[in-house]
Structure formats: structure tokens, C-alpha cells
Amino acid sequence: MSSLKSDKFKILALDGGGIRGVITARILQEVQSQIGKPLNQYFDLIAGTSTGSILAAGIALGREPEDLIKIYQERGREIFNASWLNKNVKRWFRGSKYSNKGLIKVLRDELGEITLRQVSETSKAELLIFAYDTLYRNTTFFTSCCPEENRWFNNMKLWEVCLSSASAPTFFPPYEFKWTDPHDPRHSEWRFPHVDGGLSANCPALAALSHVTGVRKKSISDISILSIGTGATTQPLEYKETNNWGTAEWGVHIPDVFMGGQIQLATDVCGQIIQSANPGGYLRLQFALNERFGQRSTPFSPRQLLSQEEQKNRFINKNINEDMDDASAENIQNLLDATSKFVEEKSSAIKQFILTQEPAVLS
Questions:
Q1: What pLDDT is stored for residue 235 in this prediction?
Q2: Cβ–Cβ < 8 Å for 283, 34
Q3: CA 65, CA 70: separation in Å to the nearest integer?
Q4: What is the DSSP string of 162-208?
Q5: What H or E segment, with its residue span, contains residue 224?
Q6: 100's torsion region: left (phi>0), alpha (psi -120 to 50) or beta?
Q7: For residue 93, what pLDDT is reported?
Q8: CB-CB contact of 259 with 195 (8 Å)
Q9: What is the pLDDT of residues 10-22, one digit of tens each?
Q10: CA-to-CA distance for 336 and 316, rounded, in angstroms?
Q11: CA 109 – CA 59 distance, rounded (Å)
């Protein structure tokens, strides 16, 4: 498939979700197949948070989606590796569930020592990664095309940036950048501690839209967004369960409840903004990991909670573990099997989205 040049500014936005990033990688495989060219040569901006930042970085460097799938299959357990004592006892009192040593090794092996700014030498697309600065209490927009020559993160290693974005609270420790301003005669050292960008932008599409309209000065009517999720976590939390939760119980549910809770609002708002100015310019690819509720009896009636035995993924008729750190071969295969069925179902929608943004596409 080949195409003539489109005037649309095309954004690829990749959610966070730990090991479930393999879902995104499998969807990207289908998207690239339909586009017919490397994703970093098609999209103008690739944005990612947490596991999505790792995928975004890989795509920006020209890695094939198949290679990214293998990272999850072959190195997932290296990333999520901890003793039983640490996973089940110590983390409740001090420290994170996992050390970041495995994650650091994987990132350095896969991304090398390239700096953030050097990405622009490889990729047509701008790379945009989000992480949350716990000192200055703001979201850092790590961009490979920063207009400020002396921005503190420009020459940070790409693996460091992805590490900071993937440092999910309770799972991994924070990551602290250290920087000395070369123009400061005092040579003072600055420190910037960061955690997972999912705290503020687990679905990075809306933040990417803000960046493109604010920094790139693009009109909304000229922007299209392909937003890809890592599977919607739908585990119901009933009142009788949460009523007696304290700080510890709510704390371990931060990634699921607090990060996941913002995704629906962010995607809805982003989609409405884009569609209002560019109909057909927004596509969200996401599916529920498990079906939890039955059908409505009327358009406004509540949905009945299914029994535990009935709560399964609709594509493979199995219950999928929704934990973001289950790196078992069985779970990863279940995620891939479900996603393969999902992309079959969405194949025509993906094609239509591409055609809408590239009206001269020839198939």
C-alpha cells in the first residue's frame, strides 16, 4: 500500500498498562501491515506513557512490532522479577514490589545509549513521552524535538526517559534525573525525581493533542489521532469490599483504579474534540479484557453483574488475568490470542481510518 502526501498531522498515542503492552504491540503489527510503511515514517508524532513509552520509543527508532512483541514474551519475567517475600510482605511496609534493575537492563539492551534528542536523527516522527515530576509536581513532556536548546532533558538517555515513565508507584521505585546546567558558572546540580506518567496521562492522546496545538500550533481540523489501549480493566469493586479499605488497600489499587479511571474521560474528551473539527479523524482501539456485566433489559436499566464463571474475554472465552505484572507465558499468549481476534474485528475500521486521513491511498 502506498500513498501520496497528506496534510493531516497524524498522532499515534499509546497507553500504559505494564505487561499488557503486548496488546498494543500486536495492534501495531496490524496497523503497520495496513499502512504498508514503517510507523515512524507515517506518523508525525508518537506519544506514549509507561509501557506505551517503551513501545513509542521502539517504534520511533524503527523497530518492527514483531520485535516489540518478543520483548514481552521473552523478557517480561526479567522485568517483573521479585522474591515471594518482597511481592507479598515487604512492599506493604517499605519499598516497591519490584526492583527496577531488570527493567533497566532490558531498556538499555533494547534502546541502547541514544539520547532523547538523537531520536530525531532516526525518525520522521517526533517522540513524546510523559512522566510525573514528584518534586515540581507537574507532568514532564519529554520531546525529542524540544525547541529549547538548553532544556534539561534533551541529552538524557532514551532508556532513562522510558524508565521514569514506566516507574509505576507500588510496582517500581521512582527514577531521579541529575543535571548540571553547562551555562551556570556555579555548576549546580539539579535533581528531577519522576514516577509513572500514568498518574496524569495514562491515556496520552489528550496530552499529545495539547502539545500539538500549543507547541506545534496545529489546527484541530488538521489533526488525526490513533489511540491504542492495553485492554480495559473491568474488575468490579463492590461497596462491601472497599468500605473497609484503608491507605494500604487503596494504595495498591492506584494503577488500576486511579490510572484506569482517567482513561475513559480522556478518550471521550479527546475523541469529541477531534471529531467535531475533523470527522473520522479519531480512532480508539481498545477492548475489555473480561466481560463483567450482562445486557441491559431496557436502554436505561442497570446491567447485572455476571457470576465469576461467566466473567470471560469474549474473543477467547477465557478469563484473562488483568494484573499488569503477570508475565507468565500463558497470560501473554491469552492476551495475544484475544488481540488477534480483536484486530480481525477492527480491520475494516483501521482501514477506513487510514483512508480518511490519506484520501489518495492506493491498495
A1: 82
A2: no
A3: 9
A4: HHHHT--TTTS--EEEEEE-TT-TT-PEEEEEEEETHHHHSSTHHHH
A5: strand 223-228
A6: alpha
A7: 56
A8: no
A9: 999 999 999 999 9
A10: 10
A11: 15
Grid coordinates representing 29? 503489527
Rounded Cα distance between 14 and 123, Å, is 17
Q: 26 Cβ partners below 8 Å, 6+ apart?
A: 65, 69, 335, 336, 339, 340, 343
Other residues' Cβ atoms within 10 Å of the Cβ of residue 252: 17
Q: CA-to-CA distance for 112 and 159, rounded, in angstroms?
A: 7
Radius of gyration of the chain (CA): 20
Q: Are 309 and 318 in contact (CB under 8 A)?
A: no
3-state SS of 270-292 is HHHHHHHHCCCCEEEECCECCCC
Q: How many CB atoms lie within 10 A of CB 360?
A: 10
- List the grid coordinates of 348: 475494516
Measured distance CA(153)–CA(192) in Å, rounded: 10
CB atoms within 10 A of CB 156: 19
Phi, psi (rounded to 5 degrees) for 78 = -70, -35
Look at residue 1 and tell me whether its pLDDT is greater than 50.
Answer: no
| Averaged pLDDT of the chain | 90
Q: Could you tell me the CA-to-CA distances from 189 to 36, 186, 192 in Å, in that order?
A: 46, 9, 10
Ranges of H-type helices in the chain = 21-35, 39-42, 51-60, 65-79, 84-88, 101-111, 158-165, 198-201, 205-214, 239-242, 247-252, 260-277, 329-357
Indicate the length of the chain as a whole number.
363
